[in-house]
Specification:
The protein is α/β, with parallel strands linked by helices and 299 residues long. The protein is globular and about 50 Å long. It is built from nine helices and 13 strands. Strand 1 (12-16), helix 1 (24-36) and strand 2 form a beta-alpha-beta unit. The chain folds into two domains: 12-150, Murein tetrapeptidase LD-carboxypeptidase, N-terminal domain (Rossmann fold), CATH 3.40.50; 156-297, Glucose Oxidase, domain 1 (3-Layer(bba) Sandwich).
C-alpha cells in the first residue's frame, strides 16, 4: 500500500461533507485547533449545503469532494462528519488526479466507504480518525495522535488485557472500519480485500440482534475465516429489544470468531468514542496479544 506524503506546517487541510449536513458552528472548534497547530483549513461554502439530512444533493457533495481530491494545494482532506451518504457518491468521483498527487483522506464511521474503496481499488493508505465535528469532544491524546500521523509519525499502542481476547502474534495489512458500513458494502467493488488481512471493526447505535446478523453474514461469506487477526474498537450505545438478545456486542463478536485461532483484540480505543485513536488503514501492522496487547505499525 502507498502512504500519502507527510504534512508540514503551513500545509492546507480541506474539508468535505460526503454524507450528513454540517453547520459552520459545528466545525468552529476544529478550525481553531487546526490553525493553532500551524495548518491552514480550507473549505467552500458548498460545505454547508443542505438537502434534507444530506450536505446538499449528491451532485453538490460530489462537486465539493472532487474539488478537494483534485486541488494540488490541499495535502489532506477531512470528512467534516459522518452520518450516511458516502456510498451514494463514491462511484461518481474521479480518483485519477488523486492517484497522481496523493493526500491523506481522514474520517471514520460512514467514511469507511472511502477507506475501503481507496484501499481496495487504488492501494492507497487512508486515516481512520476523529472528524472536525467531533474535535471539541475528542481527547487531547487522540487529537495529538491524529496530527502526529499526518506529520509522519508511526503510531504504536499498548493496552491492558481484555477477558475476551484471543492470544497470539500476527502480522498483516490493516483494513476495515465501521461494521454496519462494511456489511453494506459486501459484494461490491468497494468491499475491502480481507483475505490474509487484519480486520478492524467498530459500531454505534445498533441493535444487538443486528450485530449478530452482521457477524453471521461475515462468517457465511467466508470473510472471518480468511483473516489473520481481528481488532474490535468501540461498540457504543448498543440497543436491545424488550425481549433481550442475551449477549453484549463484544460477546456476539467473540462467539463468531471463536472457531478461528488468530489473535483477537477487544477494547481498542477507536470509533464513536472521545478517545478515538488514529489507525492507518492499509498499513502493515504487528498484533501481539498476550498479557498485554501491542499494536505496531511497520509500514
Amino acid at each position: 500500500m502507498i502512504k500519502p506524503p507527510a504534512l508540514i506546517k503551513g500545509d492546507k487541510i480541506g474539508f468535505a461533507a460526503p454524507a450528513r449536513k454540517i453547520t459552520s458552528e459545528e466545525i468552529a472548534k476544529s478550525l481553531e485547533i487546526i490553525q493553532s497547530l500551524g495548518f491552514t483549513p480550507v473549505y467552500d461554502q458548498l460545505l454547508f449545503a443542505e438537502e434534507h439530512q444530506f450536505a446538499g444533493t449528491d451532485r453538490k457533495r460530489v462537486r465539493l469532494m472532487q474539488q478537494m481530491l483534485d486541488n494540488a494545494d490541499i495535502k489532506a482532506v477531512f470528512s467534516a462528519r459522518g452520518g450516511y451518504g458516502s456510498v451514494r457518491i463514491i462511484d461518481l468521483l474521479d480518483f485519477s488526479t488523486f492517484k497522481k498527487q496523493l493526500k491523506w483522506l481522514v474520517g471514520y464511521s460512514d467514511f469507511t466507504v472511502f477507506h475501503s474503496h481507496v484501499n481496495r481499488l487504488y492501494g492507497i493508505q487512508t486515516l481512520h480518525a476523529s472528524m472536525p465535528v467531533n474535535f471539541g469532544d475528542t481527547t487531547q491524546e487522540a487529537l495529538d495522535g491524529l496530527f502526529d500521523v499526518l506529520q509522519g509519525k508511526v503510531p504504536e499502542y499498548q493496552m491492558e488485557k481484555h477477558p475476551l481476547n484471543q492470544k497470539g502474534i500476527t502480522e498483516g495489512i490493516l483494513t476495515g472500519g465501521n461494521l454496519s458500513v462494511l456489511y453494506s458494502l459486501i459484494g461490491s467493488k468497494s468491499f475491502p480485500e480481507t483475505e490474509g488481512k487484519i480486520l478492524f471493526i467498530e459500531d454505534l447505535d445498533e441493535y444487538l440482534y443486528h450485530m449478530d446478523r452482521m457477524m453471521m453474514a461475515l462468517s457465511r461469506a467466508g470473510i472471518l475465516s480468511g483473516l489473520k487477526g481481528l481488532i474490535v474498537g468501540g461498540m457504543t450505545e448498543m440497543n436491545d429489544n424488550k425481549i433481550p438478545f442475551g449477549k453484549t456486542a463484544e460477546q456476539i463478536i467473540s462467539e463468531a470468531v471463536a472457531p478461528y485461532n488468530y489473535p483477537v483484540c477487544f477494547g481498542f480505543p477507536a470509533g464513536h468514542i472521545s478517545n478515538n485513536m488514529p489507525l492507518i488503514i492499509g498499513s502493515r501492522i504487528r498484533l501481539d496479544i498476550h498479557e498485554h496487547t501491542q499494536i505496531i505499525f511497520t509500514e
